[in-house]
Specification:
Helix content is about 40%, strand content about 20%. By secondary structure, the chain is of the alpha/beta class. It folds into two domains: about 5-275, Rossmann fold, CATH 3.40.50; about 295-360, Ubiquitin-like (UB roll) (Roll), CATH 3.10.20.30. Strand 6, helix 7 (about 215-230) and strand 7 form a beta-alpha-beta unit. The relative contact order is 0.13.
Length: about 375
Amino acid sequence: MLKCGIIGLPLSGKSTVFNVVTRAGAEVKAYASGKTDPNKAMVNVPDERFDHLVEFFEPKKITPATVEFVDLAGLSRNASKGEGVGNAFLSFVGESDALVHVVRLFENPDVPHPEDTVDPVRDWNIVEMELIFRDLAVIENRLSRLAAKKKNIPAETAEKDLLERCQTCLLEERPLRELGLSAEELRLLSGFAFVTLKPELLVANLDETQTDDSMPQLEALRRLAHEKQIRLVKIFGKMEMELAELPEEEQKEFMGELGIAESGRNRLISEAYALLGLISFFTTGKDEVKAWTLLGGETAVDAAGTIHSDLARGFIRAQVVSYVDFIAHDRSLAKCREKGVLRLEGKEYIVADGDMIEIRFNV
């Protein structure tokens, strides 16, 4: 299961955001006191298509797509040197597939900022530099081992050249995701678990008084996100965590009174799901409607294997119709077949987000 690690400075509201997203009511874990296991929770991915299919088929069982969130301890300056909770934090970050970076915009005198003032761009840079230092340390360690050998085999020489390119990028204070590495280069680097290679989502953590969309600090964060090509999501962390206990209609009414158009929760989950490169396909029927998770670009036989290994082994054809076509043709498979949008596809068919699939197989 792919997972998103929630990172940020101490007291930026990471655990609050975790609780908003997961509705888990989790307590903050204190790494410094020896509690090194982070909070984790599986979250259903909001999807109106799935909801409509459930409404239409009225199945006995429903299974939405899910994604895992991991609430990591706050990362402060010099964590990459092993100070504070650095080693525990960086270990868990290395195990995450994508990073959800929470940046504090809220003011609260009862929750002092570790850097004394609220400055979201500065805070983002502090964490980013610690991640860069971590990756640099990994590279320097490996290069020193290669240099200690009397002679490198061709594969090690190629590895050395690639690592030196990465080192140059990091020394320029740029994350490795900006290097534009090829699929083969990424494969060669996969064992290092570089944290700056991981896709990142930026979360602006606001309070209920900060509804002005043109706030200077929010605008500065938007410019940073645009420059770094990072997606940005706003969330009213503390308020949305408190509202989670109310019925959905009351939540909308309360937020409407404050001039907040939408909850950040669903958008954050959906953006994180997309950040991981995931798509959903559906299997439907009276017994169960299920949203299955697949990496974008995977094939019909990959989808079959996701459902069950026997389906991939005995794969014959996949019957496919897109959700959009299914809805456009009165939710009738007969009409979809008549109009030619219900198709039989082979093993190499690239599954599209929202496909409704039935696997034909023989084992």
